[in-house]
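Suppose a colleague, Dr. K., hands you the sequence of a protein chain of 300 amino acids and asks what its three-dimensional shape might be. Before reaching for any lab equipment, you can write down a predicted structure in token form. Begin with the sequence itself:
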Amino acid sequence: MGAWVVANDPAAAGQHLWEAREFFLKVEACCSRFLPDSELSRVNARAGQRVRVSELFCEVLGKALECATRTGGLFDPTVLSALEDAGYDRTFEAIQEYAGPPPPNRALPASWRDICVERGMVMVPEGTRLDLGGVAKAWAADCAAIRLAGLGPCLVDAGGDLMALGAPPGQPGWPIGVADPRRPDADLAVLWVRDCGVATSGVDFRRWRRGGVVQHHIIDPRTSKPARTDVLAVTVIAEDALEANVHALTALILGFREGLCYLRDQGGVEALLVREDGQVQATPGFPQYIAYPALGGFSG
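The predicted structure, expressed as tokens, is then:
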């Protein structure tokens, strides 16, 4: 997590930045699937039972279920078992040398619609396990930015999920580079962003092989397997980081043509898509955010 704020009071800014980082650590301790003592791990270990959880956990889970409802389940917080079947059962750094057997063919055991949240208690159906990482990270970026905004213009970057409020003095926004998935050391474009969120979802970086088959971390809930998509990466600008995250993931799963139509139907959302074949396409309003294209033009 990175955070920047333009403030007149450096001491106050330092204190608030420290509190923002502590908040991220609290969210991670609550919602990380890699921490065995997190609330998420406890809920997953007791699937089929009612488990008392914190207000923070309820908030994040509630956001995840809202996103699932709005996307018809393409954004699904119950894909953890499918994700681990594909080989993502450890940190990404540890996956690189992993050569396990091919993933099994099995459907998700239950639906996100069957999750019960009531009076500080959560119950997920037996055999169902949650992954809240993407939602928690983007939501934390939004919350941290709101906390810092009282000091002045701020930018919060939660590993690619960004929230910008205000702009540095004399600038039209915060400069944000959009990485080229075909050339990781270069940018497709540099954006000016303010009072909005930015998120990128892609299958270009987190790839590995299992049973001789290329896998990635974007699960299509319709198949319970890594999405078969012709899109390498989608960068979305939306009202906040969580909105951007949801729309980027959904568009990636849908693929280039259907994903582009989906994005164009969303109010207040602009995006840049990069296909596997190298074609780059922007939604009509995306160019207004571009400071300059780094590698030449693309379709609008």
